[in-house]
Amino acid sequence: MKEEQRLLLLHSSSLFFPPQGVKLSYGTAGFRADASILKSTVHRVGILAALRSLKTQSVVGLMITASHNKVTDNGVKIVDPSGGMLTQEWEPFADQLASAQTPEALLSLITEFVEKEKIPLDGVQSAEILLGRDTRPSGESLLEAAKQGISSILGAIALDLGILTTPQLHWMVRARNKGMKATEPAYFEQISSSFRCLVDLIPNETKSSKMDNTVVVDGADGVGGEKLEVLKSMLTSLVIEVRNTGKGGGLLNDGVGADYVQKEKVVPRGFCSNDVGLRCASLDGDADRLVYFSLPTSSSRKIDLVDGDKILSLFALFIKEQLSILTKEGTEKLDNSYHARLGVIQTAYANGASTDYLKQSGLEVIFTPTGVKHLHEKAAQFDIGIYFEANGHGTILFSESWLSWLEARNNELGLASEGSEQQKAALRLLSVSKLINQAVGDALSCLLLVEVILQHKGWSIHKWNELYQDLPSRQLKVKVVDRTAVATANAETVAISPPGIQEAIDAETAKYPKGRCFIRPSGTEDVIRVYAEASTQEAADSLAGSVAKIVDRFLGFSSSQQ
């Protein structure tokens, strides 16, 4: 390492002191904590982002957000060149950087890592990092810390893109590395023009049915509400009323947002009895989650929730329908050799009724362990992979090879049978691939896709919600001495240790009609999470309670004293 580089790093890191007695860990959400203790960590993630850009010789992103957390929290995460999350191989290094106690210890870590990874740290290679932040008041000063971290690496440049949704930054990093225009106007133009294209392809018979084309959206008093105000002016045939935009003095994520709505199952702030029967949606704080809901009665705040599992079902049905039109044998003999492999990816937390419904609809359903990384990775193995979590985070991935085939097929159909049903199906699928954010779950693009599919089918939110009836469920946490004592298999649905615990869970579950139950260790605290489902709420509560007692018997504090 050049002397100039050493001195630059030592000087820069001497300005930021790591918080004492706090150990932060880089996970799916990056680093997240109370904003007041994050400056040093964000500065070091700036260094990490610059090193990542040098290593990959690509543009990377750095996002300052704490998503659905309270407004006093903040966080930082890196966006890899693909537009996805930071590779897991680099997470342990991120943890070491964050906890280095002195500038010298930090320099020694960086020196060792740069040598091991063969990162060109000579000032000759350039690195570029795109920066974004959400609307939190603490974001501005944390962004400055990130910039100082980036500029302490020779040849690294930070490009501040201002206030963005998290998915916008992911989209821009992916676009930039594909040689496409990577600006906010380009993002809005791509999703709005794809939406308009899908609207134009709605069958005439549903176009004439007078469907309500208004959706009322809770913007969580965050960045999503702000961006939706811009986007809605670019749309035809859809009226979006945005509430909780962050402009009316409401507090971010306080009694609002997708996380609150999905967990509490009540209307967010700003909604009232006048909204009975309306189609409503809720974004989370950084607009990477989306859930829908309707208010069935004016006498209660309780909602009918339409969660990520139902959004997944809607998307999967639509795509399956278009694929079957596309591959129908027409009178003309065109090359129909590519039958796309469509996969639906869920975790064990997906409601059992949704999994049954998807399987009965003839879809291939695959389970992965909990976490977006696992879902995204598995979805990428299909020609078209769709994943969602019940919390409303998910997207659709299209393989490059299948999209190339689809483009060629569309051109072929254009010559042989312009305006045929097959060609319309090809155009719809191409438009979906451009509307959906393939880098990450994106509430804005998913909202537009839900809306256009409902218009295409002529469905109300009530008809959509009736696809299947969710099984009642209950989640509990059990404090244990050591969470690592539980090991799981089969996408976390079976506990393989401690010995005998799964047999005890199975025996208990068998007592309940439609019973299903699994346990898994928390990733962050010494608790075991219990998930139970059954035919009634009372039965689900009872099953969860019984299994929590089994966990306590095997692993709780009472077990360690025997």
From TrEMBL:
InterPro entries: A-D-PHexomutase_a/b/a-I, A-D-PHexomutase_a/b/a-I/II/III, A-D-PHexomutase_C, A-D-PHexomutase_C_sf, AMG1_III, PAGM
Domain Alpha-D-phosphohexomutase C-terminal: 486-549
Positions contributing to substrate binding: 389-391, 520-524, 529
One Gene Ontology term from the biological process aspect of the record: UDP-N-acetylglucosamine biosynthetic process
Catalysis: reaction(s): N-acetyl-alpha-D-glucosamine 1-phosphate = N-acetyl-D-glucosamine 6-phosphate
GO molecular function: metal ion binding; phosphoacetylglucosamine mutase activity
Superkingdom of the organism of origin: Eukaryota
Keywords carried by this UniProt record: Isomerase, Magnesium, Metal-binding
Free-text comment on the cofactor: Binds 1 Mg(2+) ion per subunit.
Co-factor(s): Mg(2+)
Active site: 67
Binding, Mg(2+): 67, 284, 286, 288
Residue span, Phosphoacetylglucosamine mutase AMG1 domain: 307-459
Pathway info: Nucleotide-sugar biosynthesis; UDP-N-acetyl-alpha-D-glucosamine biosynthesis; N-acetyl-alpha-D-glucosamine 1-phosphate from alpha-D-glucosamine 6-phosphate (route I): step 2/2
Catalytic activity, EC: 5.4.2.3
Domain Alpha-D-phosphohexomutase alpha/beta/alpha, first and last residues per copy: 56-89, 124-177
Family: Belongs to the phosphohexose mutase family.
Function: Interconverts GlcNAc-6-P and GlcNAc-1-P.
PANTHER family: PHOSPHOACETYLGLUCOSAMINE MUTASE (PTHR45955)
Name recorded for this polypeptide: Phosphoacetylglucosamine mutase
Organism the protein comes from: Gossypium raimondii (Peruvian cotton)
